[in-house]
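#onboarding

Welcome to the new folks! Below is a worked example of what a typical request in this channel looks like: someone posts a single protein sequence, and someone else replies with the predicted structure as tokens. Don't worry about understanding the tokens yet, we'll cover that in week two.

Example request:
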Amino acid sequence: MARNKVAVIGAGNVGGTVAQWLAMEHLADIVLIDINAGLAKGKALDLMQAMLMQGTGVKVSGGDDYSMIEGAKIVVITAGVPRKKDPKTGKFPSRDELVKTNQGIVGEISKKVAQYAPDSIIIVVSNPLDAMCHVALQESGFSSRRVIGQAGALDTARYKTFIASELNVNVHNVHGITLGGHGDQMVPMTRQTSVSGIPIMELMDKKTLDDIVERTRKGGGEIVSLMGYSGYYAPAAGTVYMVASILNDLKRVVPSSVYLTGQYGYHRLYMGVPVVLGWNGVERIIEMELNEEEKTMLDASAASVKKVVEILGF
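Example response:
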């Protein structure tokens, strides 16, 4: 029986790490595509040689020829200009400032995905995330259930990690979720957060939790300020978590950026909400009951996403 195939577009830090962890999890054969064919081929060869020690027979190939993605069940788009410090000013661009450049990149990739892997499911990782989902949807012509953004898995992982560190508990005992756009106005759902069923407010004071919420919202910027470029281990792990749910039809509930058609009161907008991920992509969108404060924060996040989407000119 043939293995599933996953294509990863962009062989940089995130794309290369996605390919590595996909291979280590024995999830699928992998194709790495990059404008720098040598980079993609080199990382693919390196990974293939590593698989001997991992005890797996998955195949990894790389290059710049999009015909290689034919038959892929999932295509992960990580390509684009990353958030990186300007060496002269010491500043780094916001996600919003990347929108026009990455629109062109993601748009061209999406057209090629539609040409060579028309039955695939697209997972977008490129920033600004929610806006790039709109680009992939528009240019691929795919059903919105097959164009999904990876952000909520990452944002929720950061949120839960910060809580676990503060309380000195196992992160797997922390239950919580973030909603909204992938940016500084995301909405960690504190009212629904618990540790093994214990409400979070019974374990820490409001100021501490508010500080964690703010740190979560600025989580990507914190890493960029430390390293000078974006994180890649956690974004890659979030992506592989989604890929596994789809390939193995696990029906995991994963916060993801998906196209809303009235859910939560938003129309024709990509934004992070809890969804069930299975073989067909987005199997179901789950609507949580929000109080007035939570809806106000989510409205602010939605407005921020809309502002960026408007730049696309669709």
